Structure formats: C-alpha cells, structure tokens
Amino acid sequence: MESLVTHSCLGKCPRERVCDVRQRRPVHAASLAYIGKESNKLEEVDAGMVQMWDEVRDEYADPRHDPWGTVVVPVLREMPVSLLVQETSLKERAIQYARKGVTQPTPENRWSFIHAAAAYARERPPQPAPRDDLAALAAYLFRDEGK
To answer: Distance between CA atoms of 113 and 75, rounded to whole angstroms?
Structure first.
C-alpha cells in the first residue's frame, strides 16, 4: 500500500485518483501445498472444541510440485561439483545422483543440499535475496523473468 499515493499525476489523471508509482513484478510460488479440511469435524470447530486448525486440516503432497525437483535440483546442476563436495561434505557420487535426480537424498543430506544451493544463489543476483532458502532459490531461478 505504500506504493499507492494520492496526487494530481501532473495533470494527467483526476485529483482524487489513486495512482500506482511502482511497476508490476511477476510473482512465483516457491512451493505449493494442497490442503483439505475434515468435514466431519466442522461441528467441533463451530463449537470451539478444536484449538488448532492442524487438528482438522490435512496436507497433501504433489510430487510434481515438490520444491526439491522444481527449485533445488536446477540450482544444484548449475553449481560446480567441487563446491558441493566442500559445502555438504558428501561424496561426489552422492552429489551426482542428487543432481541427476536418480535418488532422493536422506532428509539430513537434503537439507545440506538446500542450504548449499541457497548460499550459492544468494551470492548471485537478484540482490537482496530472500532469507528463506527455498524462496532464495526460486528468486534466483526466476531472476530474468519480468525484465
């Protein structure tokens, strides 16, 4: 809302009109999550018996929209293998398998890859990069769109 100002637009628009002074930027989702609510628990929610929405909401993963394949692996493929060995302390073969998508790394190794890829992405444009690792990777991958 800070980008919206009320002014005369130098005589080009009515005095009371709200004009946007910033240009539009494309928005890209870093990840998608499908959720569903348990309809058989709606009465409990209405009665206030459920304290947390997580108790009645289920999340469904879609492998086609998994951030691992959509934003992490593409950045890993751009990184030199020697840098990944240094950053993750993993063997070269494990790195090659992860970059090719042959195997899914263990959760611990997955986080090592994500942090290494995010650090790599943050050192390159666009700057400043988001703090969240997956958001930084998405911003790096979509850096040339919208120009």
So the answer is: 10
Contact indicator for 34, 58 with CB cutoff of 8 Å: no
The radius of gyration of the chain from alpha carbons, rounded to an integer in Å, stands at 22
Show Cβ contacts of residue 21 under 8 Å, excluding neighbours closer than 6 positions: 3, 4, 5
Q: Which SS3 state, helix, strand or coil, does residue 106 take?
A: coil
Q: Is 3 buried (19+), middle (13-18) or exposed (0-12) by CB count in 10 A?
A: exposed
- The two most distant CA atoms of the chain are separated, in Å, by 65
pTM exceeds cut of 0.70: no
* Residue extents of the structural domains in the chain: 32-62, 66-141
- The average pLDDT across 104-131 equals 91
Residue 127 gets the label, from left (phi > 0), alpha (psi -120 to 50) or beta, of beta
Confidence at residue 9, expressed as pLDDT on a 0 to 100 scale: 53
pLDDT tens-digit readout, 43-63: 777 777 777 766 777 777 777
**To the nearest whole number, what is the mean pLDDT of the chain?**
79
Phi, psi dihedral angles at 96 (to 5 degrees): -65, -40
Q: What's the CA gap between 114 and 80, in Å, rounded?
A: 15
What one-character DSSP code corresponds to residue 44?
H
